[in-house]
Structure formats: C-alpha cells, structure tokens
Amino acid sequence: MSMIINGKTGLTGLLGSPVGHSKSPMMHNTSFQELGINYVYLCFDVGIEGLSGAVDGLVSLGAKGWNCTMPNKSKMAQLCDVLSPAASITGSVNTVVNENGKLMGYNTDGTGYMRAVKEAGFSIKGEKMTLLGAGGAATSILVQAALDGVREISVFCRPGKSTEHARQVINQLTKQTACKINLFDYSDESVIKKELLTSRILTNGTNVGMAPDTDRSLITSADFFHPDLIVSDVIYNPRETKLMEIAKSQCCSCFNGLYMLLYQGAEAFTLWTGKQMPVELVKERYFDEPEACPRTAQ
C-alpha cells in the first residue's frame, strides 16, 4: 500500500535542530501506511528561538501532534497547557498532542527506555539502578524508573547546573514514590564501584562514548563490573560503546539505546492515533542488526 497525501491528511512531525539524521519519519510514515492511517510525519529544523512561532503555526494548521528533540524539550514544556506526570517532574516534553488547540505535553523517553529494558528480557522493578548523568535523557530515565517501581537509584553526575535540577527532580520523586534516590558526583571512583556492587543495572544516560569520540567511557576499569550486572547505554552510534565493550569482557548482559529510540516513538504514535505502532515491522526494516553485545533474558 503506497501513501497518498490528500486534503484530509493529518500532520505530525519533529521540531529540533539538527533533524536531518532522524529515523522518526521512516518509523512513523511506515506505521501510518501499514495501518492505513491518513497521517504524514515531517521534520522541521527549528531551534529554541523559532519554537514558539513554529508551535503557533502548527496549531493554526491543525497538526495532530509533534515530537520535540534537542534543543527544544524544556522550552516545549513551557508552551504546553497540560503536562503528564513525567513531563511535569522532568520539565521536559518530547511529544505533544494537539487537542483542538489545547497542547498536551508528554515525555516518552523514559517509558521508551523502560520498555527497551523489558524487551531486552529483563525486569528491574524492585531492583537497584546506577545511573550515569543528570541531563535530559538521564533525568527522563530516572523519573520513569522511579514511577515504575525501581527500588533504589544511585545517580552520578558532575557538579553544575544539571546537579541542581537533579536535586529538584529527586525531591519530587521522593515525595511521590517509594524509590530511594542518592546523588553522587564522579570525583570518587570508589563510590561508583561500591554502588555497582549492589546494583542490578547500570545505565549510561550521557553522550560520553558517542561517535566520533568512541574511545571514551565514564568507567574505564573492568573491575567495576560483575557478571550479574546488566549494562545499558542510551547511545546507539556506535552500536557497541566502549562502556559496553568493557562490560562484555566481564560477561555482563548489555544493550544500547536503539530500542529506546524505537519505543519512545511507539509511545508517541499511540498518543496521536490511539493505535499500537507495528514495532516488529519497524524493527525489521530500520533497527534490526546483529547484536553488539550478547543479551541473556533473566
């Protein structure tokens, strides 16, 4: 079935800068076509300065909704009328639903990550997580993990603006969930090693190790890892980061950020259409490649 754009085609898209590399148009347009939904998904290279005007234009045009990526997620949260719990706590929106001019803001990054964990064959509810980073992706994961029942989270970040935001988020999560959350900095590696000894999963929520700086890792010693530790990375370029390579040498089960990307998009798709994205088809066409690191369902 080929996609036909006509006078009734609904508009969705992505607002960010840059956006030329995005897989989202392929994911969503393939899914619309497969399910016979008369929508189209386009990319718009828009930064913070032009975001308000772009949003006004999309509302005037009757767009069904849109995604936001860097650098627009925080600004988009300020432009929405209603925020989901995760979006409210993080102060970050990556998915908007336009309900007749009323903008509903969601953060599907965290739900995408938690679904990726499940699809990789793991359950971390009631377990302990060590999380590296306090930026946008890491904060989204922190919030959703706490909301979904992760028992304890040790967050490591560098002192600065993101640390203050992390403290605010942790204070809110402490009031709203039963999750125990501790905030540390990277200065003492012995603390990271100690926290990992009692962790079920380690998640790198930073861009350290992303192409082209593929030789970098926040943890450089294999002694930090134990075979029962799951190691995940939000990075998907390269498919096997230096962190994952080191963890693999200690027989850790690993997965990268590719399926987080897929499932955050799948959540957005459902919010716009009320239907489930045909993720197996999308996986087959755009995501499935040989695994960079063995995974063991547990």
Structure characterization notes:
By secondary structure, the chain is an alpha/beta fold. 40% of the residues lie in helices and 19% in strands. The protein has eleven helices and twelve strands. The protein has helices at residues 24-35, 48-61, 73-79, 85-90, 109-119, 136-147, 161-176, 189-197, 242-248, 258-273, 279-287; strands at residues 10-16, 39-45, 65-68, 82-83, 95-99, 102-106, 128-132, 152-157, 180-185, 201-204, 230-233, 253-255. It has a six-stranded mixed β-sheet, sandwiched between helices. It has a six-stranded parallel β-sheet with strand order 9-8-7-10-11-12, with helices on both faces. A hairpin with a 2-residue loop joins β5 and β6 (102-106). α1 (24-35) crosses α11, α5 (109-119) crosses α6 (136-147) and α10 (258-273) packs antiparallel against α11. The longest helix is centred in the middle third of the chain and has 16 residues, at 161-176. The chain is globular. The chain starts with 9 loop residues before the first strand and ends in an 11-residue tail after the last helix. Mean pLDDT is 93; it is low at 290-298.
